[in-house]
Write a structure and sequence with these properties.
Distance between the termini: 31 Å
Shape: elongated
CATH architecture: Sandwich
CATH class: Mainly Beta
Strand order of the largest sheet: 3-10-5-8
Order of helices and strands: EEEEEEEEHEE
Number of strands: 10
Structural class: mainly beta
Number of domains: 1
CATH topology: Jelly Rolls
């Protein structure tokens, strides 16, 4: 399998003429796993200007710390930039959408002008967990490095 490098909007469909005809920004997905033994883990790298749409978490093995099992998803500078203290202990096996933090939703909706290392921070209280595994799924739109979209005819 080969890799493709792409930045900004793409043209899809059969109409190729005219400004913005069949032009849009692709939605990409990156996934990574986190386990009960991870405290802080580098999950994936988002490109500069990316617009994060949502975060899903698939619990493949229930987390079982004594009191709380919390997952925050963010960066090294802000560990809960996207998701703050999502409870992994009561979800069981399944898929849930992380509640993105309000500050992120009201701020400019890009990761900034540089690539962003996304981290997952697992915090447990009330006794150490002995099980727990999850897959983090992040959906984002590719944009220009400054967060803009440029649609050229």
């Amino acid at each position: 399998m080969g890799y493709q490098t792409h930045l900004g909007p793409s043209r899809q469909g059969t109409i190729r003429e005219g400004a913005s005809a069949n032009c849009g920004s692709p939605v990409l997905v990156q996934t990574a796993t986190i386990a009960f033994s991870d405290t802080v883990k580098n999950l994936f790298l988002l490109p500069a200007g990316a617009l994060v749409l949502s975060v899903d978490v698939a619990i493949t093995t229930a987390f079982n710390a004594g009191t709380n099992d919390f997952l925050s998803i963010g960066s090294t500078a802000d560990d809960d930039l996207f998701v703050n203290d999502m409870d992994l202990g009561t979800l069981g096996v399944g898929l849930t959408t992380g509640v993105m933090v309000a500050a992120y939703l009201t701020a400019p909706l890009t990761v900034g002008t540089a690539d962003l290392q996304v981290t997952g921070t697992y915090t447990q209280t009330g006794g150490a967990a002995t099980t727990g595994a999850a897959t983090i799924i992040m959906y984002y739109v590719v944009r220009n490095a400054d967060g803009t979209t440029t649609i050229a005819p």
